[in-house]
Fold:
Amino acid sequence: MALPLGHAVAGWSLCLLVANPKRIEWRAAALVGLLTVVADFDLLASFLLPFPAGRYWHHTVTHTFAFGLLTWVVAGGVFWLARGKASWREAGLVALLVASHTVVDYFTVDESEPRGVPLFWPLNTEFYIAAHPWFLNIQRQDLWHLLSWHNVRAVVGELLVTGPMLALSFAWWRFYPPCRRRQPGWPWKPRHGSRS
Ligand SMILES: [Zn+2]
Structure:
């Protein structure tokens, strides 16, 4: 798995390109970061369920495109409950951010079997991983592994890949004609009097 920071930076880049927000807000950025790591909540099973059952939950149903689709429906429902109408475009952005996690994990080194992520479950149970992963895996067996040189290289590597990605999407957002920016552009703020 990649670090939450790598997932968050990829999510911010995606948001600047797709959501095209009127302005950048730190609370919105924090929520975007959170959405990009929702899939890793399956790690909780590792702590809550006895070994080895919990271990086998990680990199399963939450790391699929089907889970992204599910969050689209759930987010649409939440927007509908909150505003009295579903905003499928904004719900789609939520789903895109959640699914971006699976794509980043696809490009991450994985040393535990089965390697990779089951992208197309339930259509098939195959696990997929990039032939040449961009990100190193994070070793987290214990504190010594967490503080290892390997993990330092993983963090630096993630920033070297996602940093330029964020810089490019920020530049695109910065020079995109402001009059064409969407208000609010982020997926959770209520739209007062604006059409979706
Ligand atoms: Zn993951």
